[in-house]
Design goal:
Elements: H1 9-19, H2 24-30, H3 35-41, H4 44-47, H5 50-68, H6 80-87, H7 93-103, H8 108-116, E1 118-121, E2 126-129, H9 134-144, E3 147-153, H10 159-173, E4 178-183, H11 186-189, H12 201-210, E5 220-223, E6 226-229, E7 237-242, E8 255-259, H13 267-274, E9 281-286, H14 294-300, E10 307-311, H15 321-328, H16 333-339, H17 358-361, E11 362-363, E12 374-380, E13 387-395, E14 398-407, H18 426-437, E15 442-445, H19 450-458, E16 463-465, H20 470-480, E17 491-494, H21 498-503, E18 509-512, E19 515-520, H22 526-538
Parallel strand pairs: 3-9, 3-10, 4-7, 4-8, 8-9, 11-17, 12-15, 14-17, 15-16
Antiparallel strand pairs: 1-2, 5-6, 6-7, 12-13, 13-14, 18-19
Helix pairs in contact: 1-2, 1-5, 7-8, 10-12, 20-22
Length: 553
């Protein structure tokens, strides 16, 4: 015997809507059919199906019977304002029982979410039941505790939808409740008032409100950046605005919410404004936007006054490591940090010259050759911070760094003003090193040292001033720390060059707002800068422009 096919949930929903005299095409869309499907097929094929026709008639009979059969329902456990609202409507006993369950101050929120709450599935382009996953239930309980709450989250966890549903429930069923919402741009708060779409916060609230049965909906009026409950005696409303430096300052409400607060411009000022007015709950929700924002500072401070809640993609029961691998496969490190991993710093290999190993590249003074190959000096200026002057021999494909002068408060002075201040003049140190280690081919200086180049040239020294390509210089030193082609490192440092040995392990890439930059962090690094100058000089005739070099960034 053939089994009778049962109607699907969408087909039943469609039948109920048609029985309540909704337009069939609109009923299909609200029941969850894709708009493209409705446009291509229309509603006539559904209306011709015997099972659906019978369901529509059954629903009409139920509706007619309910309208004619008054049943008393005890609403005494509800606030008096809600009792008056419900009793003023032409509702059946069954509808009143459901309203009572939905509006119950203790359990109503979760009952309503489970039975009457719909969201929009953007990926599938159809409405979807609110899932009420375990972490969402825990989150909603945290909201009910009130106070200052900060939620750091992965993307696409329906946290924004959850807060929208929370606000919708309160504005419908919680007399005198008021809420306020903000986000980066005004259009993300409300993009159309009575015609707002699910691309905005108010549009999501409106969507879920519309998808309730007509008898369940309270009379909400949607206007631009304002939702007002028009039921007599309720006095509930939701307002909103863009996240400007004065956002929410004058809003005295029960519930204040800043969505994607890490992405708000001038977030420090926006937070200060949100603290103004009054509130029982102040909520910030956001994915990561790295470190340069007030959201990050609040979640990092121990005494911020906020309860920190963290919800990751792993909290969705329908996601696993396989999903993560597929989702993140085409993402950059920054995208993964922000959208999936809730990371605030993309540290990576921040050390610039990772090949440097004191056991390999530092030799005792007695093991260093003297008076061999080409003599070179390399220099990077410093006054408040120590400047650095080095002497080295380039011999057999290896640069031997044998002499170091590392001093603060020293200048390169014009010969006419030297007088008796030779101890303050780098030229004097240059001549001392030449006397100690031998003649030099040239002195290598930084790109910004044009004035020093002129002074040194005036004293009879050959000067090489480097170009602007700092990444190429860093690359060359990195290569020199490797093999010179003969099985030996291309750079060796005398153990007596103490400051250079200290600087290299601390020479790191700059990190701005959690992102590694393509330039060093700065600070006391004149020794490293000097080393780069001589490295460029030694490779000045190379054709290699460094395009195939993969740095740490």
């Amino acid at each position: 015997m053939a089994r009778t096919r049962e109607l699907t949930a969408r087909e039943k929903d469609f039948a109920w809507r048609v029985a309540r005299n909704e337009d069939p095409s609109s009923a299909m869309i609200r029941a969850g059919y894709a708009r493209s499907y409705v446009r291509g097929n229309g509603s006539s094929h559904l209306l011709r199906r015997p099972l659906i026709k019978a369901e529509i008639e059954r629903c009409r009979v139920i509706e007619d019977t309910n309208e004619k059969t008054p049943i008393q329902v005890d609403l005494s456990e509800l606030p008096e304002e809600l009792q008056r609202v419900f009793n003023s409507k032409a509702l059946t006993g069954e509808q009143l029982e459901e309203l009572k369950k939905c509006a119950d101050p203790e359990s109503g929120l979760f009952y309503w979410l489970k039975h009457y709450c719909w969201t929009w599935d953007r990926a599938r382009k159809r409405k979807a039941e609110y899932p009420l996953w375990p972490f969402q239930r825990a989150f909603l309980k945290e909201l009910e505790k009130q106070g200052c709450i900060l939620v750091e989250k992965s993307r696409d966890l329906m946290v924004t939808w959850t807060v929208c549903e929370y606000m919708l429930w309160h504005v419908q069923f919680d007399p005198y409740w008021t809420g306020f919402a903000t986000s980066r741009r005004e259009a993300e708060v409300d993009n159309g008032g009575a015609a707002a779409t699910t691309a905005s916060i108010f549009g999501r609230i409106r969507f879920s409100w519309m998808e309730q049965p007509a008898w369940l909906r309270t009379a909400l009026k949607f206007s631009h950046l304002k939702i007002v409950n028009q039921e007599e005696g309720m006095h509930t409303e939701i307002t909103g605005e863009s996240a400007n430096p004065h956002v929410g300052r004058s809003s005295d409400v029960f519930f204040k919410w800043g969505d994607e607060f890490a992405l708000v411009e001038q977030s420090e000022k926006a937070h200060a404004a949100m603290l103004g007015g009054g509130f029982n709950t102040l909520l910030y929700t956001s994915t990561s936007n790295l470190t340069g924002n007030e959201f990050y500072r609040l979640r990092s401070k121990k005494d911020s006054g906020f309860r920190i809640l963290r919800y990751s993609w792993e909290d969705r029961p329908d996601r696993n490591e396989k999903w993560y691998a597929a989702k993140s496969a085409s993402m950059t490190s920054e995208q993964k940090a922000k959208e999936l991993d809730i990371q605030y710093e993309i540290t990576g290999p921040a050390l610039i010259w990772k090949k440097f190993d004191p056991r390999i590249h530092v030799r005792s003074h007695d093991d260093m050759p003297m008076n061999v190959g080409i003599g070179l000096m390399f220099f990077d200026e410093g006054y408040a911070h120590p400047g650095a002057l080095y002497y080295g021999y380039f011999w057999g494909g290896v640069l031997y760094v044998v002499g170091e002068i590392y001093k603060a408060g020293v200048q390169l002075m014009h010969p006419e003003v030297l007088r008796d201040e030779m101890d303050k003049d780098w030229v004097g140190y240059v001549e001392d090193m030449i006397e100690k280690f031998g003649p030099i081919e040239t002195i290598c200086v930084g790109h910004e040292s044009r004035g020093f180049e002129d002074i040194l040239t005036a004293r009879g020294h050959s000067v090489y001033r480097v170009g602007k390509d700092h990444l190429n210089r860093i690359r060359i030193v990195d290569e020199m720390l490797g093999s010179n082609g003969n099985g030996h490192p291309g750079l060796l440092i005398d153990e007596e060059c103490v400051e250079l040995r200290k600087e290299i392990p601390k020479f790191k890439w700059k990190v701005v707002n959690g992102l590694l930059q393509d330039y060093p962090a700065g600070g006391v690094d004149h020794g490293c800068d000097s080393l780069q100058c001589v490295a460029e000089y030694l490779r000045r005739d190379d054709d290699n422009d460094g395009d195939n070099w993969v740095s740490a960034i």
